[in-house]
Each structure stands twice: as structure tokens, then as C-alpha cells.
Write a structure and sequence with these properties.
Number of strands: 0
Radius of gyration: 22 Å
Structural class: mainly alpha
Distance between the termini: 28 Å
Order of helices and strands: HHHHHHHHHHHHHHHH
Largest sheet: none
Strand content: under 5%
Shape: globular
Oligomer: single chain
Number of helices: 16
Helix content: over 70%
Length: 394
């Protein structure tokens, strides 16, 4: 338990800086909503979705580890678990967007589909109260599973006699969660992001959003592992093997993100259908083309070249730098999904930076607080017990 005192953010200075940034971000958001809503609301959507996807991807990471029977990550379980308590906060921050939906979504205006005969289905589906009711339902599902995972994990610490039964229960939760996740992330991608341009649609969009979300989650978890690996208790569980596995996941899923990005872009470019190309015409004009190209460089080319070799995947400094780059890269990716619908040119001023800093500082505070609420390594995990038994007999 004492090892949790070494968690980042436990110092008064770190807490004070993060708290100050949260206050600054909140003040910037309030000022922006009153003085410049056309800038503030898109920024709140961008950072709210980023905040949500980081905490949600931690739940998905845990579920995939359970379903694949992974043993290498058993000692690191508390790190993704520490991201999950941010989901209720994310729900509040996203539901606040209801007060700015007329600024964000063109379908919220009367007669938005009057001149679009093919948009009757969208007009029925995109009704403001129902969109935000679906948002609330999606968050209820995500928060429920996060709570189940975390509660069961803590029960395992306190009840060694139930260790194996609780381990199986978490695996059962994982099976259900991945099915629920597939549906809810698709609903979220359509309702919150793609409907910013209700005249455009892509059957690959939900997969694209998932790919970016999961890469972001792996990067956040890997960064935390690298920063915490020298704490007295965790250093026995973070070996080159764990770093290599995390590096392989980063390497693989950045390629997956690039594959989905390329498939979506090339299919639309080759088809050259006016209703489909509008999305990319906005993002490849003279104002946005530099960020459009930078997005691919940051989210794929640099990570691919940086993690191509085996030693690079085991290098803590290399992993840290790639993770920081990918976390910034996913923010840029979301920026390009949202902002070209609301502005003719990039506009990231002090207002946008203050809001983004506030959201990231809030995640930092939630993560470090959650990390100190339980032992840094699970106490009665059967996988860890099996590993210790094998080591004792070897």
C-alpha cells in the first residue's frame, strides 16, 4: 500500500498545478460560452470526447486482456483501472453539450433536412432530446461496466478465498462488455461526431473512431507504466517483456489506425461521389491540408519508424516519447474530425489551449487519486499466484 504514495501527482506541487489548470480551463470554458460560443462549444466537444475515449479505452483494454487470456499484463491491471473513474465525470462534461447543441449541430435547426429528400431517416433519428437521451444511455452502460470491473478487482484484494471465482466473473463481464462496446461506440461516433455534417456518411467511420480511441488508450496506459515502473512494488512486474508487449500493441494498432484511415480515404477518393467527397474537400483545402498531412505523420509514420525494431519496443524513453506523440496525435485527429465543420480555417488560440489543458489536468487528478485508492499491484490475482509458483519451482 505504501507504494501508492510514490504515484505521480501525490506531491502538493503537482496537485496545485493540476488544480490551477482545471480552474483555468473551467473559467475559459465559461467565458468562451458567453463571449464566443462558436469557438467554445466545438472545443468542449473535442476535449470532452478525448477525455471520454481515454477512460473508455482503459475498460476495453482490460476486457481484451481477459478475453485473450493474457498473463503478461496481470501485474499492471491497476493502471488501466485508475483511468476508469473518469467516466462519470466525462458523462457530465458531455451532457453539458446539450446547452450548445444548436451551435454544434446543423440538424438541430428547424427545416435542416427540408431540401434533402434523402435525409428523412436522419431527420427522424437526429432529434435533440433523443440524441442526448442516447448519450446518457451509452454512458450508463460504460459506467456500469467500469464499476463492475473495479468493484470485482477490489473484492479480489480483500477475499483471497474468492480469487478464482472473481477472476472468472471479470472474464464473463468482458464477454458482455465487448458486445455492448461495439454497439455503443458506433452510436457515439454517429451521434456526437459524424452528425456534425449530417449530409455525409461513411460505413467505416465507427471503426475509424474505435481505432483512434484504442490507440489513445494503449498510449495512455503505456505512458503510465513507463512513469511508474521504478516504484518499489511495480518494478518487479515491469520487465522488458511487459514493455515489449505494450510496444507491440502500440505498433500494431497504429498500423490498424493507418489501415482504416487509408481504406476510408481511398474508397471515397476513388468513388468520387459528390455526397461523399465533401468531408475530405473541407480537410484538404489550402487551410487544412498541412494538418491533414501532419495527422498521418504523427499517428502512423513516426510511431511506425520509431517502434519497428525489437529493442525500440523495450526502450522506456522511446516508448514514453512515442506515447506522448500519439496522445497529441489523437487530439489532432479529433480536431480534424470536428473543427473543419465549424470553421473555415484552423483557429487554436488561448481559449482552446486553456480548455484542453483543463481537461488533461482533470484526467491527471482523477488518475492519480484513483491510483492511490488501492494497492498498485493486485493482491490475490490467480495469474500472479501461478507465476510466483512457477518461479518458486524453477
Amino acid at each position: 500500500m505504501n507504494d501508492n504514495q510514490n504515484a505521480p501527482g501525490s506531491s502538493p506541487r503537482g496537485f496545485a498545478i493540476a488544480t490551477g489548470l482545471v480552474v483555468l480551463g473551467a473559467a475559459a470554458a465559461v467565458y468562451g460560452v458567453m463571449a464566443s460560443p462558436e469557438r467554445a462549444w466545438p472545443s468542449l466537444l473535442l476535449n470532452g470526447f478525448y477525455f471520454t475515449s481515454l477512460s473508455l479505452s482503459a475498460v476495453f483494454f482490460l476486457a481484451t486482456q481477459r478475453l485473450t487470456g493474457a498473463r503478461w499484463s496481470a501485474g499492471l491491471r491497476r493502471i488501466p483501472e485508475a483511468f476508469m473513474p473518469a467516466l462519470p465525470i466525462a458523462a457530465v462534461l458531455m451532457l453539458v453539450l446539450y446547452f450548445g447543441w444548436h451551435t454544434l449541430y446543423p440538424w438541430s435547426h428547424q427545416g435542416a433536412f427540408a431540401h434533402n429528400p434523402t435525409g428523412a431517416g436522419n431527420a427522424s433519428y437526429l432529434q435533440g432530446p433523443w440524441v442526448f437521451a442516447r448519450m446518457a444511455g451509452v454512458f450508463v452502460a460504460w459506467i456500469a461496466f467500469a464499476w463492475l470491473f473495479r468493484r470485482t478487482s477490489w473484492r479480489q484484494d480483500r477475499h483471497p478465498e474468492l480469487s478464482l471465482a472473481l477472476h472468472r466473473k471479470m472474464t464473463s463481464y468482458s464477454v458482455i462488455f465487448v458486445i455492448v462496446f461495439a454497439v455503443t461506440i458506433s452510436v457515439a461516433a454517429f451521434d456526437w461526431l459524424i452528425s456534425l455534417d449530417p449530409g455525409w456518411f461513411s460505413t467505416m467511420f465507427a471503426v475509424y473512431v474505435f481505432a483512434g480511441t484504442f490507440v489513445q488508450g494503449i498510449a495512455g496506459i503505456t505512458l503510465a507504466v513507463v512513469l511508474l515502473k521504478d516504484s518499489p512494488l511495480l518494478r518487479n512486474f515491469v520487465t522488458p517483456r511487459q514493455l515489449h508487449d505494450l510496444g507491440k500493441m502500440l505498433f500494431a494498432f497504429t498500423i490498424f489506425w493507418a489501415y482504416i484511415w487509408t481504406c476510408q480515404y481511398l474508397l471515397i477518393w476513388y468513388g468520387n461521389i459528390p455526397d461523399e467527397i465533401s468531408h475530405y474537400l473541407k480537410r484538404t483545402n489550402s487551410h487544412w491540408i498541412y494538418l491533414f498531412a501532419l495527422n498521418v505523420i504523427i499517428n502512423w509514420i513516426i510511431p511506425f519508424l520509431s517502434l519497428a525494431s525489437i529493442p525500440s519496443k523495450q526502450n522506456p524513453k522511446r516508448l514514453r516519447n512515442v506515447c506522448l506523440l500519439l496522445l497529441a496525435g489523437h487530439w489532432l485527429d479529433l480536431y480534424l474530425l470536428i473543427m473543419p465543420e465549424k470553421s473555415t480555417a484552423p483557429n487554436a488560440g488561448l481559449l482552446e489551449l486553456a480548455i484542453a489543458a483543463g481537461y488533461m489536468a482533470l484526467m491527471y487528478l482523477v488518475f492519480t487519486r484513483s491510483l492511490r485508492q488501492s494497492p498498485l499491484v493486485p493482491l490475490n490475482d490467480p495469474i500472479l499466484a501461478y507465476e510466483r509458483l512457477n518461479q518458486a519451482h524453477s
